[in-house]
Every structure is written in C-alpha cells, then in structure tokens.
Write a structure and sequence with these properties.
globular, seven-stranded mixed beta sheet, five-stranded mixed beta sheet, 10 helices, single chain, alpha/beta
Length: 270
C-alpha cells in the first residue's frame, strides 16, 4: 500500500514548490489508483480494503490524506487524483455549483452523524441563555448543523429552509444562542472557547471524541442525505478500477469492519 498525507493547501503549495509546478503532488508513474481521503474514518476504511481485499480484486491503491474539505476536490478536478472519499452529496453539489467543477458522486459508503459536543454542559438543556455555539462555516454543513439543533427543539427554522439554512433562517431562538461559524476542521479545538460546537463526525473522531457516547445529541441515520461516498470526475464513473473500488467499499466485510471499529460512531450505508 502506498500512503501519503497532505495537510491542507499550505502543504500542497510547499510540495509543488519542491517538485516544480508542473508535477502533481501525488503523481507516481506506477498505475496505482490515487484516492484522496480524510484520515478518519475514510483513510482507515481504504487502508482496510487495501490490506484485506484489494489484491484479490486486482486493485492497487494509493491513499492520499487531506485534512481539509477543499483540496481533495480541487486535486480531483485537476486530474491529480483518480477519486476521493470524504464528502456527502449535498456538499459535493454545492462545491460543483460554487467552484464550477464537474465531479460525480458514485457510491454511498457510510454516515458519520453530525453531533453537538460541549466541555461546559452535559446535556442539551444545560445550555445557558446567550450561550455561544460553534458551527461549520461551509454552506451545506451549516444548514445541517442548524437542522440538528432544530430537530432537538433548540431553535426553530423557517419552513422549507432545508440544507441551505443559514442563521437568517432561524425564526425561533428561545435561548438567544450566538452562532460562531468556523472551518469544520477547527471545531474540535473550539470546545475550550465556546459553550458547545456542532462537529462533523470525522473531525470529532480525529480529536479523540466518541460520537456515540460523547455527543449531547447526534443526527438520526434514517433517510439521512449526508451519507459519505466515493467521488470521481464526471465521465469516470464506469472506469474499471473505480467500479471495483465502489464494490469493495460496499462489501459486507467492509460493513462489518465499520461496525466493529467505530461502534456506532460511523454506520455503513444500506
């Protein structure tokens, strides 16, 4: 298995400067399928496949880790990756619309429930009047965070706001909560400075949190549109290696691995 790590745009810039701007940061002439992924759980799931299933399926994987939600799509659109695995379809749709990319969602794999966490209170009802709640600042995950709070009766949203909800769509806020939008990767670190934070599952786990037991509340899995999956450049959906990887990501052995390793903090799709 080939395993690389890229820490956001700054590391990408350093890599390109060292190798020459025309050389891909992940490029190796070895025929491996290069897949960009968040370290947890996406990179771990891919590593399990590579170590246990890929060889028998005739697949050579190179896993490239990213710690942000932008560069995996940028590098995929530039042809520096063959696929990525870190995002749900609402985020992808928003990225395509805002950045002019043409990326396609191929295979649903798992759900990482978004959760509300706090070091200040132990239950939702403990949030004080005027408490500060950190939320993701990207459009789809902000709407998702506000929906989580609305589903738990903390706020009320304008009817039909859906995944595009923003603070302007909050029609009821009985606790006068103050929202602090932050980059998703920064949310776990904000817990010392805010009263609570709505954190994406992968970043919660990377920070040592256990969503199934540490979150004050978690998203429900049923009919949840935020399933993470495999993404490619449009037109590559039927590439043989992509089809093979898609099947492996949905293999029962992978579902069993997810259930055993993450104990409810990540749930397999389907």
């Amino acid at each position: 298995m080939k395993f690389g790590r890229i820490v956001g745009a700054a590391a990408l810039a350093l890599s390109l400067a060292a190798c020459g701007a025309s050389q891909s940061a992940t490029s190796e002439p070895d025929g491996a399928l290069k897949v960009g992924a968040s370290p947890v759980p996406h990179g771990e799931i891919l590593a399990y496949i590579d170590e246990n299933l890929a060889e028998a399926a005739g697949l050579d994987l190179e896993i490239v880790e990213f710690t942000d939600y932008v560069q995996p799509n940028v590098q995929l659109s530039e042809g520096k990756l063959d696929a990525n695995f870190f995002q749900h379809k609402p985020y992808l749709d928003d990225f395509n619309a805002s950045k002019g990319t043409d990326l396609a969602f191929v295979t649903p794999v798992h759900l990482e429930p978004l959760g509300l966490y706090s070091k200040k209170v132990t239950e939702l009802g403990g949030l004080a009047d005027g408490a500060t709640v950190a939320v993701p600042n990207d459009a789809t995950n902000l709407g998702r965070a506000l929906k989580l709070l609305a589903d738990n009766g903390v706020v009320t949203l304008k009817e039909g706001a859906g995944t595009a909800a923003t603070e302007r769509d909050v029609t009821g806020n009985p606790k006068n909560l103050k929202f602090e939008p932050l980059e998703a990767a920064q949310l776990p670190r904000s817990l010392d400075d805010v009263d609570a934070a709505v954190i994406n599952g992968n970043y919660a786990m990377e920070a040592g949190l256990k969503p199934a037991s540490d979150a004050l509340t978690l998203e429900k899995g049923e009919d949840n549109p935020y399933v993470n999956g495999l993404v490619v450049a449009a037109g590559q959906e039927q590439d043989p290696d992509i089809v093979t990887l898609g099947k492996l990501l949905q293999d029962q052995k992978v579902k069993d691995f997810i259930a055993q390793k993450y104990a409810g903090s990540v749930t397999a799709a389907g």
